[in-house]
Design brief:
By secondary structure, the protein is an alpha+beta fold. Helix content is about 40%, strand content about 15%.
Length: about 80
């Protein structure tokens, strides 16, 4: 979980994409090259909820939607 304080939706989406780009960069461990991917769900306070439980619920649903679309993606609901 990443908490971004005073961050506009457009900026949060840019940050989410940067996180995914960094995660997907191959890592060399001994003779093995390893790649990972991520899926990110975003929610926005106070527009989508005024408590942590509501916001995390939205993030969770959006993360699974991103996974369903092929992983290594984010979903902000926009």
């Amino acid at each position: 979980m990443v908490w971004l304080h005073n961050t506009a939706a457009d900026e949060a989406e840019i940050i989410a994409q940067r996180v995914l780009d960094e995660l997907s960069a191959p890592i060399q461990i001994n003779e093995m090259k390893i790649s990972v991917s991520g899926s990110i769900g975003l929610s926005f306070y106070p527009d989508e909820g005024d408590n942590m439980e509501s916001l995390l619920n939205i993030c969770d649903k959006r993360m699974y939607t991103a996974k369903d679309k092929g992983r290594n993606q984010f979903n902000s609901g926009r």
